Amino acid sequence: MGQPLRQQEKDAIYEIVNRTLHQFHGLKPGEEVNKIILGLLAKYAWIYGVEIFAFCFMSNHFHIVARCRSLQLHLFMRDFQSQLARKLNKLHNRTGTFWERRYTATKILDDDALIDRLRYTVCNPCESDLVSHPKRWPGLCSWDIHHSGEPMWGEVVDRETYWREKRKKKNEDKSEAELIEMATVRYPLEMAKLPQWKDLDDEAYHAKIVEECHKHAGQLAEKRCKPCLGPKKVLAQKWSSRPANPKKAPRPLCHGGDPEQREEYRKQRWDVADSYKEAVGKWREGKTPVNRIEFPEGTIPPGHQFCYGCKGQFNMTVPPRPA
């Protein structure tokens, strides 16, 4: 079965979701796991210029609400997921496939749906009856940033710097911990403001998000018919375990919008797919080089890693260290 055609739009906001193979608890919260996820998420969001509005990493899947105006969302996810899988496989002393499938990026059509997906993302541990409030979730969640109003700082060891410093004679007496500290790069992870609330100052914005999530967690608590699992039992789970009855739901075409908007978006997707097929047909004829064929903006031509219309801009500067 073929995969749906990927298309990115510069101003579109997407909910990105993926889960582990057979939904095993490879992302189970823990000090080292949280540190790895935070470091990689902050690093690649910095490099590819991804605006993140909310995120939550559960034991076997994750949700990220994000936008990438540079049309490099697929590169961000490629590097983030591949490095995360490699590091967590090493941590768990396992090999092989980590993710069950490629990630899904579902477009959010309107402001109401955007607020709804943000609430759902931040309160996802409550939706799954694991904890009663997002503040009790031991895993990585943007609730901590919204509640404190301060960015998180992810740490990543630059292996090239590490080996370069280790080979220097002046560093022969330095310990392993000192060399790692010298090679550690710290990246800030801040939450972008939702477009409809962009005029609020930082304090008012984060207070608004906290209020929305607190209200949503309360509504879920009222509907809950059984006690939550609790953070202690979540942490006690084995990373190799998986749910007895894993939940699966079909991916929606988009989030939000009235029936007319959704139908219009569906037709737009069909038009893009038809245009892409036509462009691929010209490429397969072999008469025209792929770089001279016009593909729909935001799609990836065959054999290329950049979207059509993407300039391939990366932020390779080292961020200033936190005070």
From TrEMBL:
Signal peptide interval: none
Which residue ranges does the record annotate as region Disordered? 239-265
Gene Ontology biological process terms in this record: DNA transposition
Transposase IS200-like domain spans which residues? 9-124
The cross-references to InterPro entries, in alphabetical order and at most eight, read: Transposase_17, Transposase_17_sf
- SUPFAM superfamilies tied to this protein: Transposase IS200-like (SSF143422)
Q: Which Pfam families match?
A: Y1_Tnp
Coiled-coil stretches: none
State what protein this is by name: Transposase IS200-like domain-containing protein
Originating species: Persicimonas caeni
